[in-house]
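sorry to bug you again but im stuck and you know this stuff better than me. what follows is a protein written twice so to speak, once as letters and once as structure tokens for the fold. mainly i need to know what kind of three dimensional shape the backbone takes. anything you notice is useful, everything is just below:
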Amino acid sequence: MPIGDEVLSNFTQQAQEEKIYSDKKLKIGIVGTGWIAEAHIESYLRQPDVEIVALADLIDGKAAKFAKRFGVKGVRFYPDHKAMLAAEALDGVSICTYNMTHAECTIDSLNAGVHVLLEKPMCVTLDEAISMMRAEKKSGKILSVGFQPRMDENMQMIRKIVESGTLGEIYYIQTGGGRRRGIPNSTFIEQKTAGIGALGDIGCYSLDMVLNAIGHPKPLSVTGYTSNFFGTSTDYQKPEDASRFNVDDFAAAFIRLEGGIILDFRISWAMHLDTPGDTVILGKKGALRIPSTECWNGTVGGPMTLYSDVAGEQVETIIPVIESDGPGLFDRKIRSFLDAVITGGKAPVPTSQIIYNQAILDGIGRSAKLGHEIEIAIPEI
């Protein structure tokens, strides 16, 4: 067996997914019926033990049109999440609203005794995240955050490689990604609805990929930078969108993590470049290169490369992309949430991990405004 194949063979094991179905239909509500809610309802409709019973949306008539489009009958409609929670006995709720309402909708749902599947990012500020975790702890209910890339075998491979010790002690990570042109519109580009821009939309994915791989060390400090040269320019935006654009379309940061790890981060919705670089994880025994994508919301951008020394020789091992013929990532996200509800298990993507992601996003924004490095302090929950 060639040296490269021998190294690769350490990481080829794949686990079979086990499905757990409830004897009774789980009553599910969806808050917010925008485009991301489409993926939620499509996946819920594929689950044999789910009944969509309620939809809530602030825009009059939007939820009814949403239900009709997906052929959901017998569902009840509400003008907001508060009315829905007051009237329904729900087992779980998907929160698919814009970022600035994530905290309120989540806390109210947990206080009502309802399990929550929350779309990413967790919220906008660290203070919001802390309040959400306190409500979660008090309620005893599940709060899982919607990072479906964790369900991808290739993303799991990154963590397996790190945990195997092949890279040795990690000391530096470069990560990020972005689009040459890819600014969304609607509620994504205003502070009053989104709170943060590219940072929250795709930056949180990039951060989760590497933080999850290295075991979630605490962030200690951050020097952050943000800009919005493209989003506010009529050269790249419609005048009506440019005039209301007031979030970041590019961000960069230098983050110090526990254990002496440095995280060098860049993310973009628009720039004069196809990518700010691949993700690179450097260890004292080896290194891993992960090809960039426009945004880390699915899988890796191509075969990964593992760099190591074997018997005095410098070796490059290509890690092929793992193709999956099983359920899609969204179905896995939905199913893992439902299984946790049924069994009383832990959240598939727990807030105890995502709090570090949120602390970094919050820290980048605060540091950028202040113009200097800031310390990150996360209180005990």
About this structure: The chain has two domains: 26-148+331-349, 150-321+357-375. Residues 1-7, 12-16 have pLDDT under 50 and may be disordered. The domain at 150-321+357-375 is CATH 3.30.360.10 (Dihydrodipicolinate Reductase; domain 2).
